[in-house]
Amino acid sequence: MENNTDVEPPRTDAEDQVHPSPKGDIPGRLAVSSLVLHGHQPPQRGAEANRIRISAGPRTAQCHNQPSAVYGRSETLGIEESDRQQMKKMKATVRSEYIRRVKAIMRTELNGENKLKAINMVAVPVLTYSYGILTWSKTDIDALGRKTRKLLTCHGAHHPKAAQERLYLARAEGGRGLIDLLDLKQRVEQKLRMYFMEKPGRLYDAVKASENGSTSLRLTTAAQEVGEAETHLSKERLWKDKALHGVYPRLLVKDDTDVETSLSWLRAGLTAETEGFVCAIQDQVVKTRAYERTILGRDIDDRCRMCGQAAETIWHLTTSCPALAKKEYVERHNSVAKLLHWTILQENGLKTTNAWYDHQPEHVMENEQVKVYWDLQIITDREIPANRPDIVLVHKQARQVQLIDVSVPSDANVKDKEQEKVQKYHDLTLEVQKLWSMRKVTTVPVIVGATGIVTKAFRRHVNSVSQVKPELLVKTAVMGTTRIVRRSLGLIAESAV
Predict the structure, then answer these.
(1) Which residues on adjacent β-strands are paired with residue 164?
(2) Assign residue 446 a region: left if phi > 0, alpha if psi is -120 to 50, beta otherwise?
(3) Cα Rg for the chain, rounded, in angstroms?
(4) Which end of the chain has fewer surrounding CB within 10 Å, N or C?
(5) pTM (2 decimals)?
């Protein structure tokens, strides 16, 4: 029986580079192992000439340079190997495990944001660890990207015609935050490559000389020849430059748009299905009649199925259809106004329900500090057409009045609607100040775009009357829009959010 108590001789400097300590040189361990597993042998001396050891902390995997293949698994990398790496087998194993994890994540009850985060944190590392070890082609990675998007589509989290670039942008920029597999591969391989190119030592020089482009690191290739992934800026530019998909991102970059608040619905805990549907609305790929006729080329009547007048575009359905204005638009408007009204009552000590969505506003409520009117016509000495703001907040002691009016227009008309509201109630503010003997009367426009676009003045307007989070008003408006589109197109009712 072999004696396992032999004392190992002192290690040389070269051996220290091949066998770093468990907490040592991780990139070096990965790349040396990669070359060994591809069949390349760094130079060795003496008793070590027939043996390559791959450090794995307290354990060591051994490969013997003998004609017969010795099969096993690299303790450091988890890569199947014989006298060389089992490339095809391991790529199939890694691919299968990645897809299995994505499927498992999509079957969970996580919200949309957390599902994509889970893919980044649980599924993507399966591939990441193989980059620089296994040779993945661009075709391989593109196929995995398509499979990922297909799985998202099957679970309702991504529309098949929506902007692909948007999936891989950060949520703070209007994207979904998914890691781009090709970008990640090239970043990881480039870092490993630069590590070897810049690392001094005879071992590293020998590795570079013997690699001959057989690994994905391409250590013998000039730096400028290594391809770069599609940059972050190019993804953003591609999204904006598209005719349909680009309308929404071009609105986001306007000078008067509050980007953070406009995109707050992406961090509001919506289900993956609802989040994907909102993105489809913003990208204008929902199958309206106008989309079917113009984009899909079908010979159909593109007039709105609800009103039968204008072309049935997504923006017509969400903000301009006279048939929907009678009920659906009113419900969406009232949801936003009701949330604001409920918060004002709570902050001023007036009796209300525990949850805002159970709130049924009364026309007049008051105490010693404030009086709050809801959807009530204000009587004046002279006739004023615009005399019915949504909420009137009277501060008795300060003798100040705030005329609050809510609107949910199309995203492109948010700024114009704010100015319109101020002008609309100008005469009423003068009459109220005179008739009620008030020191100050102001108009407070609370304007949220149909899919969440707001101006930089929005937060200031909301905070002037209530401490409600502006993000909640944005989410309420966006959810109202999704209900309108789903009902109009006869789609299945949305999942709980």
Answers:
(1) none
(2) beta
(3) 32
(4) N
(5) 0.80
Question: How far is it, in rounded angstroms, from Cα 187 to Cα 73?
Answer: 26
Q: What is residue 37's predicted lDDT score, i.e. its pLDDT? A: 39
pLDDT > 90? residue 220:
no
Q: How far is CA 171 from CA 49, 113, 182, 183, in A?
A: 53, 9, 19, 17
Assess contact for 494 and 273: CB atoms under 8 A: yes
3-state secondary structure of 248: helix
Report pLDDT digits (tens) over 16-33.
433 343 334 444 444 444
Mean model confidence pLDDT for the chain = 83
Pairing relationship of beta strands 440-447 and 400-407 according to DSSP bridges = parallel
Q: State both tokens at 106.
A: 């999509």
- Look at strands 80-81 and 370-374 and give their pairing: unpaired
Over the stretch 41-92, which tens digit does the pLDDT of each residue have?
A: 444 444 443 343 333 333 333 434 333 344 455 544 555 555 455 788 889 9
470-489 and 272-282 helices cross at what angle (nearest 10)?
Answer: 80
DSSP label at 12? P
* Residue 95: its H or E element: helix 87-106
Q: Contact, 328 vs 417, CB < 8 A?
A: no
Q: Are 54 and 42 in contact (CB under 8 A)?
A: no
- For the stretch 379-416, pLDDT in tens is 998 999 999 999 999 999 999 999 999 999 999 999 99
Angle ∠(393,396,398) on CA atoms, nearest 5: 100
Phi, psi of 404 (to 5 degrees): -105, 125
Distance from C-alpha of 12 to C-alpha of 45, rounded to nearest angstrom: 10
Identify the weakest region by mean pLDDT among 71-85, 134-148, 297-311: 71-85
Query: Which residue stretches of 396-450 are H helix?
Result: 414-424, 426-435
Helix-helix angle 328-347:470-489, to 10 degrees:
160
Rounded to 10°, the helix 26-37/202-211 angle is 40
- Tell me how far CA of residue 60 lies from CA of 18, 155, 302, in angstroms: 12, 43, 69
Contact 37, 81 (CB under 8 A): yes
Give the H or E element holding residue 484.
Answer: helix 470-489
Q: Is the pLDDT of residue 119 over 60?
A: yes
C-alpha pair distances (Å), 363 with each of 46, 326, 341 = 95, 21, 11
Range name among 217-231, 232-246, 371-385, 443-457 with the lowest pLDDT average: 217-231
* CA–CA dist 392, 375 (Å, integer): 8
Mention every residue, 6+ apart, whose C-beta is less than 8 A from residue 29: 20, 54, 55, 76
327 token code pair = 């009920």
Nearest Cα neighbor of 475 from 269, 325, 318, 169 is 269
Please answer whether residues 493 and 479 qualify as being in contact, where contact means their C-beta atoms are separated by less than 8 angstroms.
no
Cα–Cα distance, 388 to 380 (Å, whole number): 11
